[in-house]
Design brief:
The structure is a homodimer. Chain A is mainly β. The first copy, chain A, contains 1 helix and 9 strands, in the order βββββββββα.
Chain lengths: ~150, ~150
């Protein structure tokens, strides 16, 4: 067992899981959200300003109990938890590739494409590196005909 | 504080952190690695076979103490931890986008592009979705002239 500690908190327009978009690209236009770091971690943002995209990891503290196999709302067949992005995972860690729009006057990161509830604990920020994180030709299994990206 | 539990273990060719490649695309050719799930989580792989790429999250249990600002080995200037992919993070969670080559006779996922030590605890498997995870035009800040992708 390992211990994860929050490094900050995410601010989004959604106040319950039922309000959240299925993914952060579904809202059109995607709203501005904020990632607020605890004071002790703010020095860790040094040199982050040149990245256009970041990967945020967060703890989905309102997810229900994990289910190994379940029927997704968009699907007519049962699927394994690791073949979906459901929050109900053994470790409820959410991941979003977000557009980074700079740091505001309060020191918060301004981002778009989040999909989680307001107040969700932030646990990591990583730079998005297209050299290792980008797979334009990736095939999407049973989701191949789903989840078109708006715009 | 939240508790993370291993869902399995990663098998790679590298037996110490000093042997590990800087990222999973640096080894040429990238070796075959394996992700072995604990029995209780194996049903969660249902329907995963059609994805060409996955996102693996793992716990970097041999990382040193986190440093908010440090000088990366490839750099001549100090950088913030959140502007790099260093393992020495407040929460030492590693993330790799891996090529998925199927499930072997022992039920292990066969993957390429890992960069971590043999025996690293696996904490999540997510499908890579090019509709939300792929940003071919992303700018890479101070790493813009680094990390070319082999091949």
């Amino acid at each position: 067992m390992f211990t994860v500690r929050p490094i900050g908190v995410l601010h989004t327009p959604w106040h319950s899981t039922s309000e959240c978009p299925r993914n952060g690209r579904r809202a059109d236009p995607p709203p501005l959200c904020h990632a607020e770091l605890l004071a002790e971690f703010r020095d860790g943002l040094h040199s982050i300003e040149g990245y256009s995209h970041l990967i945020l990891l967060y703890w989905l503290d309102r997810a229900g109990e994990p289910e190994m196999v379940f029927k997704p709302p968009f699907d007519d067949q049962p699927r394994g938890v690791f073949a979906t992005r459901t929050p109900r995972r053994p470790n409820p860690i959410g991941l979003s590739v977000v557009k980074f729009e700079g740091i505001d006057a309060q020191g918060r990161l301004m981002v778009r494409y989040l999909d989680c509830v307001d107040g969700t604990p932030l646990i990591d920020i990583k730079p998005y590196l297209r050299t290792t994180d980008c797979e334009p030709e990736a095939s999407m299994g049973f989701q191949a005909n789903r989840a078109p990206r708006p715009g």
